[in-house]
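User: Can you fold this complex?
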Amino acid sequence: MFDEYTFEELKAILIMQSFGGLSLLCIYVLMGLGLYVVFGQMKVINMAHAEFLVIGSYTMCLASKFVIEVMPEFINYYLWVAIPLAFVVAFIVGWIIEWILISRLYHRPLDTLLATWGLSLIMQQCFRTFIGAREMSATLPEWLMGSWAPTDIIDIPINGLVILATTIILTVGLVFFTNKTRWGLRMRSTSQNRQMSQALGINTKVTDRFTFALACGISGIGGAFLTTVVSTSPTAGTTYIVDSFLVLVLGGLGSLFGLVISGGFLALLSSILEFFMSGSVAKVWLYLIIFVVLAKFTKGLFSSNIRS
Amino acid sequence: MKSQSTPTLTPNEGFLDKLLSGRSSFLSYSLLALILVVILPLTLSEFRLNMCGKYLCYSFCCIGLVLCWGHAGILSLGQGLYFGLGGYSMAMFLKLEASDLESTKIQTTPGIPDFMDWNQLTELPWFWQPYHSFTLTLLLIIILPILLATLLSFFYFKGRVTGVVFAILTQSMVACAWYFIVGNQGFFGGINGMTDLKTLNGWDIREPSSQKILYFITVACLFGCLFFSKWILNSRLGRVLSAQRDKEERVRFSGYDLTAFRVFIFAVAGVLASIGGALFTLQVGFMSPNLIGVVPSIDLIIYTAVGGRLCIVGAVYGSLLVNTARTLFSEAYPTLWVFIYGALFIIIVLALPKGIAGIWSDHLRVRVRSLLKLDKKDKPEKLTT
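Assistant: Here's the predicted assembly.
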């Protein structure tokens, strides 16, 4: 079957396909990153996580709409405002929700799961009522839609590159933030030993609130970048939620390295499977493979070996 | 099940006493029976009664969730999978009966269900063969969920996966089942589900009179399941389950193999859901993947939580109440209903973790007792998750 291709062409196909896989990995990681922070640092399962992704996507869509209507000459630059805006909006919503709801539910993980599911229903209905039930997508600047051609047969989409760069920046930034800054130190100490942190004068309540809001903000950025790939609708979150949880569980809860590896594993698997069979059957096999892997490695692929 | 095992529960240990331990339990069962057998059939129209029968099918799943989530601490977000297992088993039997040679003679291959013919299948797949027999179908409705639940939980429970992670896994399982059915249009009817189910061994299930009979069959099965669950909870088994929910390590060090207990209760919950699913198909006349997906499975949890996650009778009231409210509100104010429904999750979790049953057992019962001068002291069970 490879006879009709030259070596050069095969290499180009390989590079472009692996880049496609890499973009998928980035999407998985972007989906799982916020969950990782909330679960890894706070042991809270946030079922409304996907709705924060959607908030980010909507911020992006509305920003592009606004820019086109009011100042079309800035269409090429609005990204640099819209993405911080997506972070800020999701951060603020997260802050409020932690304050009203989540702060009452620590140490009741299963109950948090239910309450946040209720929250996600409410948020979905808010999107539907206030923004509209129709699917929406952001108008992207010209330069993002193009592709980069290092040789004349290799064609790499720019938005894939941007997503890749964002994922790397966010992941590295998160590692840097948790390990090297004062706030990161507070986050880690609160998650390790709450009482002792309180005794040392750390305001654990504010730390929790900040951590949760930060996770939401990261999801907001992730969602903003998802608009470059898929369109957004009020119920878009439900399609992300199962996958993003599986990435997290497979990676071993609370391990950032595991998250990236399992994102890569899932991306690889699903692109291979979807090559051979139809979308939903591929999904079935993907889940079955994950179940088998998790039956063997029940703590996930890369768990921290600390007893809870 | 000798007397020393459950000293705190009942002083006398006859089988019937266990089922209906104490006066209040007997009263609550009689009240439920009164409502379901007498009041609802007399007051509701045929259409509404059929709807109630439909809601009662969900309450089978809720009873399972009370056992599995409330008493054993294993939250399953994927009971829809087992509901679907029973529902599809029954639907496959009914579909085969509906597609006899006579009524399918215009197809390319007569004698197979219509959706198979549309998908160019020329032969009945092997896994459809058992569904020619009604007895085998009934057996499969019980056996399949046991097998599947054991298979899907044994390795996880053995690896001590519990709590949130297990909940997420069960959710993925039900998502997987959804994709499986949708992806196999030729075998299971795909997203459209199985429709045009007509007769059960020649008995037309769409007639109003047979719908009424089906309602009473559902109620009878429901009471069977209630007594069975009550019996499990009052036995030593139930004590171990509650114990491992509250103090896992202590039970483990006492020499119990928790894997077996957990797999058992998870399978029981699956079987209950499967029975509910089978009855659902009979009453509604179709089965579709959207009845068993991720969202309907979480709906089952909220029915349970509203009724009270520790109270098996409460589960029945919970599913009836929430579904009735859903029907009434979403007919009139669909937007408002979603807000109310979402808020319901939050309110139940924050304010009423034991649901309606909790209002009764923690607040009202004491008052009623003091009014009636009954001085029996029952401490309300503490809820830990």
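Residues 15-372 of chain B form one domain. Confidence is low (pLDDT under 50) at residues 1-14 of chain B.
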